[in-house]
Amino acid sequence: MIEDGPPKRNGTTPAPIAVILAPTRELARQIYEEARKIACRTGIRAVVVHGGAEARTQMRDLYRGVDLVIATPGRLIDYALKGIVTFEFVKYLVLDESDRMLDMGFEPQIRSIVLEQNMPTERETTMFSATFPKKIRALADNFLNKHVFLSIGRVGSTSDYIT
Fold first, then answer.
1. pTM of this structure
2. Where are the domains of the chain?
3. Which CATH architecture has domain 9-143?
């Protein structure tokens, strides 16, 4: 657990310390439900942000204070551009199912979040992909410093040995 923790908000702008990006609202909600279980009784507050849900409810949840935001790229970049959330205190960034996010056309939003917003360069960034195609490896080269590539089985194929 983080000792004193960062401010829950920077003035009036929610400022999470961790951001998890997922390609679909279903996956974002699934990650959120698991994060809530893990964070239970720790003081860490998780919020889920995705399209197809009531924006006012999500904003209210953010303004109540947030440590961890689980989001789809489109809705999160929309909130960032409107000044509803800031990334200036982010220490951990996770890109889950990176290959799907690229396939779904989220590369401009991901680049904006990682490179153009006030996202600190001194952060831990992880990218996960079932296939890790060349385009994802190129994105990893852009987003990650001294990264480690871990592969189970052959890159680009599934493995019968993984359950």
1. 0.82
2. 9-143
3. 3-Layer(aba) Sandwich (3.40)
